[in-house]
UniProtKB/TrEMBL annotation:
PANTHER family tied to this protein: LRR RECEPTOR-LIKE KINASE (PTHR48063), LRR RECEPTOR-LIKE SERINE_THREONINE-PROTEIN KINASE FLS2 (PTHR48063:SF98)
InterPro entries named in the record: LRR_dom_sf, LRR_N_plant-typ, RLP23-like
Gene3D superfamilies: Ribonuclease Inhibitor
Main location, first listed in the record: membrane
Record has Zinc as a keyword: no
Keyword Kinase: yes
Annotated Pfam families: LRRNT_2 (PF08263)
Source organism, top-level taxon: Eukaryota
Location relative to the cell: Membrane
One term under GO cellular component: membrane
Domain Leucine-rich repeat-containing N-terminal plant-type: 34-73
The protein's name in its UniProt record: LRR receptor-like serine/threonine-protein kinase FLS2
Length: 246
């Protein structure tokens, strides 16, 4: 996970916005030397079997603003965006006051997700999905500081040790989408109160729960999509209208 730590440090220094999908660089520049060296160091800890980052070279006349996947400010030369991964970008604009969109799915990282991600307090969108258990989470306390988070996707990360996953996500006031497909979850801890006031999409499919389905799920008034395929819940499905007061 050293690559992720390096990325977090760079995000803090250069306030870049990270999204998915490699694209051509722009013609801004020249880029800042410190940011260029940070990118080169970051590259050393990435897996790039397709050699997509072949333009990321350290020659003196190499302008990092023209590197594949790097977008710079046309006036200042500061790096604003990094496009990494395998799918199309969902980002339309940059936000200079802080990173709001961070999508690192399929980026090849391994190990424990660093708690320093919780320092990116402006995040609205965080995707660390599709790692097939190569990423692990020991607790969710670092998520608790992301009070603006609207979309959280950690599908296929190993959350089996994160016993506080529900308590923490329940306290995120802006959360609209929670995707935890195939995360090795096996326990639904009790909730003293339900705060999922904005939650519209909940995916707990392909986990290994052994309890009955929690009744609070059916009291979520803004819920429009609920995915529970092969999640292990036992017992009958209760009357949804009963718990919504319909």
């Amino acid at each position: 996970m050293r690559a992720v730590l390096l990325l977090i440090r760079f995000l803090t220094i250069a306030t870049i916005t990270v999204s998915i999908g490699l694209c051509n660089g722009n013609l801004a520049g020249p880029c800042k030397e410190g940011e260029k060296q940070a990118l080169l160091t970051f590259k050393q800890h990435l897996k790039d079997p397709a050699n997509r980052l072949s333009s990321w070279v350290g020659e003196e006349d190499s302008n990092c603003c023209n590197w594949t996947g790097v977008v710079c400010d046309n006036l200042t030369g500061h790096v604003l965006e990094l496009h990494l991964g395998n799918s199309n970008s969902l980002l339309n604009s940059t936000l200079p006051w802080g990173v709001r969109y961070l999508n690192l799915s399929k980026a090849g990282f391994e190990g424990i997700i660093p708690h320093q991600l919780g320092n990116l307090t402006s995040l609205r969108y965080l995707c660390l999905g599709d790692y097939k258990y190569n990423l692990k989470v020991e607790n969710f306390q670092w998520v608790s500081g992301l009070s603006h988070l609207e979309h959280l996707d950690m599908s296929s990360a190993d959350l089996s040790k994160a016993s506080d996953w529900l308590q923490v996500t329940n306290m995120l006031p802006s959360l609209k989408e929670l995707h935890l497909f195939g995360c090795g979850l096996y326990h639904i801890p009790p909730l003293p109160s339900i705060n999922f006031n904005s939650l519209a999409i909940l995916d707990l499919s392909a986990n290994v729960f052994t309890s009955s389905m929690p009744k609070w799920v059916f009291s979520l008034r803004n819920l429009v999509s609920l995915s529970l395929n092969n999640c292990g819940f036992q017992g009958p499905i209760v009357n949804l209208g009963k718990y919504r007061g319909e």
